[in-house]
Design brief:
This protein is α+β, with helices and mostly antiparallel strands. The protein has three helices and four strands.
Amino acid sequence: MNESHFPAPPAAAAPALRRMFVRDMVLEAHIGVHAHEFGRTQRVRINLDLAVREEHDGPAAQMSRDVAGAQMSRGGVGRDDLARVVDYERIVLGARAAVAAGHVQLVETLAERLAELCLADARVVLVRVRVEKLDVFADMDSVGVEIERRNS
């Protein structure tokens, strides 16, 4: 099991939320405060975990019925439409652009920028961002930071 994954949230923690995630995105980043970190790239691993408010639409989503016509305990899936959900491609492309935008001194700064990217969609209630530098010390996998931010 990869230790960089976030633990799964309890099933009852957020009944009206959908979890969208990006796991183990490894990018070359211009990052660091030390002289030897300028003018070269370092590998960073990014993990994003978004709690997204579910939006149900129309009468079919309000109450589902099984084959026999009995009411089911949860609403329907809703439209099979990308506009109804947070597009993970937009999040991935935005994260790549944030990393490529230029030198950042702190992993904390990069993590905050990634959180802002995710929270730009009002449906995102909470985001957890982990940024790890992978090649800092030979005797460990990574060093980094994990932050959690909420939409106001």
